[in-house]
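Need fresh eyes. Consider my entry:
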Amino acid sequence: MLDAAALAKVITSVLAPAVPYLVKAGDQAWGEASKKLGADVWDWSKAIWMKLLDRIKAKPGGEEKAAELVKTATNLSVDPSDEDAQAAFRFQLKKLLIDDPELRSEVAKIFDDAKQSSAQANIRIGGVDISGGSTVTNSGNIVGGNQTLGI
């Protein structure tokens, strides 16, 4: 399983394009996201986001941690390609994943399931086409076909 830092990098790369829609919520925004990002990527993004928020809120003091994550996500939603906003979001994720190994395992499973699905379809994540046989390295890089998404 990926360590917390590597998993936070992968999560950030997948969620960054989806964050503007995730923080808006609502059926209209989420329907638009599914069309723009593709149903598979949107479903994975939403599953990861909901898993993060649900688990964070369930813990003592979780509302504050969830609010901080949403705040950094909201900053990222202004410009998903902003490296500083990505770094702040990634830092919040890393802290959460270090503090909660079970959450880290559950989110990693979502990625494993996504990887299994990508064996049957070409998927576009963070501007990179991911096809069958793609892997996520322990350094957090997604390697697929002739491309490596260094995140």
